[in-house]
Amino acid sequence: MLQDLTDKFESVFKKLKGHGKLSEKNISDTMREVRRVLLEADVNFKVAKDFVASIQEKALGHEVLKSISPAQQVIKIIHDELVALMGHSNTGIKESNMPPTVIMLVGLQGSGKTTFAGKLAKYLKAKKRNPLLVAADLQRPAAVEQLKVVGNQVGVNVLADLNSTPVKICKESIVHARKGYNDVVILDTAGRLHIDQELMQELSEIKENTNPQEIFFVADGMTGQDAVNTAQEFLKQLDFSGVVLTKMDGDARGGAALSIRAITRKPIKFIGVGEKFDALEKFHPDRLASRILGMGDVVTLVERAQQAVDIESAKKLEKKLRRQEFTLEDFFEQLQQIKKMGPLEDLLKMIPGAGGKMMKGMKVDEKALVYTEAIISSMTKEEKRRPNVLNGSRRKRIAMGSGTSVQEVNKLLKQFQAMQKMVKKMSKFGSKGMPRLNF
Amino acid sequence: MASFFEKFKQGLAKTKEGFVGEISSLVKNQFEIDDDFIDKVEEVLISSDIGVATSMEVVDDLRDHVNRIGFDHKEELFTFLQEHLSKSLDRTTTDFVEGFFQPNKKPYIIVLVGVNGVGKTTTIAKLAKLFHQKGKTVMLAAADTFRAAATEQLEIWAKRVEAEVISTQQGADPAAIAFDAGKAALARDVDVLIVDTAGRLHTKVNLMEELKKINRVLDKAVAGAPHETLLVLDATTGQNAIMQAKQFREVVDVTGLVVTKLDGTAKGGMVFSIQKELQLPVRFVGLGEQVDDLKPFDAETFVEALFNEN
Description:
heterodimer, A: alpha/beta, Four Helix Bundle (Hemerythrin (Met), subunit A), Rossmann fold, 434 Repressor (Amino-terminal Domain), 3 domains, eight-stranded mixed sheet, 20 helices, about 55% helix, B: alpha/beta, 2 domains, 8 strands
């Protein structure tokens, strides 16, 4: 996510780092680059311009020029400005005093409203709510059918009536929800162009008839310069209360996030990061800003690790490491835990400093992991504990059993030996040479 | 053809208003072409999603031209920009489209690919309609087995354009459908088979592999298939469209682009950056939700419509 922006900023700052102190000229050079970076990442022209201007002003300030590490200063300024631009924190969903709470989803065609409706329903269900999905898209062929399937998959009731009208069914849904004890109603409206007066009017009518607590503008995270126009028009017509950015699991872009936020001043509530119904994340502006600046997304990484790693087995492993008993079995277990944390490539991107140039072109081969697993699984318990017993014929058997070749088995064993050596060094370091903080 | 140009211009009216409107107002308010003016031209270009690199290039040329020769009036400025932008557009599309609808292979197999929500299924319906109008028999393969009700959506469209659909249940192997459809198209002697695939982000390695497999088995079902692989791009997408095109082309042999939703956005700049950077020609543009709102992309008309003031 936003990887390109991060890459570019890093190259800009590399230039900046070369200078001991910032002159007016190299600030303005840098700012021109920053502007270009933002534009290439689809940040709206005007937004980028304002953003750069505000940074330039601050960067030119007295304190920066006198500070010991000007580059760090500028990075901090840009980071702070980015965070400020994207809002400071996320907020929850506004509730109605008298259930049901009505949430209306609006946006262009193909922005991902129906998928988000499913995710939101699942999210609410996990919070012990009882949502009702309402099929208000009677426009697109099979849209109703799609929502029904989605509802079925996430285990939420769907209200649909092909013979009704969008306004009517939304109005009815509230009565229906009260009868069915649904405390949240999610209105999935048809995608429409912001310039389609008639359909925009229809949304206004739905709004008037249902008094939604929240109207979420669902926008494709890959949108270009036009994001601003669309958002503005929907805002004018509906005064929506929040923004949802979808398809943020793609690469490199997300400038739309900055643009929409800057222009509408509405909070970004959720981001969609996949096609599965639990691929929904709360929006964390500070994390995103850090990520943009190549500081990595350590918070998310740690969160994922906490979810995946079982503390007991981590403690056991630590003991083993200390006693230098790290075996292939442990290695296998480690692999399983890493896998639980999600795609390796995503994980690497979150590591500070690893996000940029270093990782570029380095394709993480998830399949290599599968082979490694297969090889280890084809070993006997004894072999896993004492890899020394692995002679030629055993290796051949393992290769056959795992559908790999002897070379691959050898390669893995070599890697494992190197790792054991490293573990030995580390444990020595840990017992004797550990730097002490309290002298 | 007249109606086609009408529709094309109508669809692009928004683009025109934005682009020409802004430049015109610039020229009206400002008679001298100075740095400030050039900066504003740059803004107009970039705001149209033309892309930073292409915009900068055009602006540099413009600046150069101003310094050496200068402009007498705004018409000259338009001509200048028109020439520069159209330089990066492929003009062979008109001939291509003729051949496209009169294929010499049978069954002629077309695969549509793209990220989620760009309008692949709708585009397929529109394509099927166009073939149908040319007297061709069309079969559709519902190889999007992932998205809920994608098959139903295709079936509803198929009914409207009188095409047969080969489908299966959700979650099935899309390559298997593609293969069956290829065989069925052969057996039933249809002219054209259009394969709908699930939307996939170009960064998902597994899904891209799946796409590779679909094209591979199509070749097994009908040697030489697919004959066309069209990448569908959403016109509202920004510079990421280039990444998409690059990635998809790496996996399958993309032969052309379809740019959808050009009726809604005020910017058509996408087209320039994609063609310039990838040399992938735009074959069709989607200009609306109706089944006959798909038009062959015509570079001349596109540029003309962009700059024509009325």
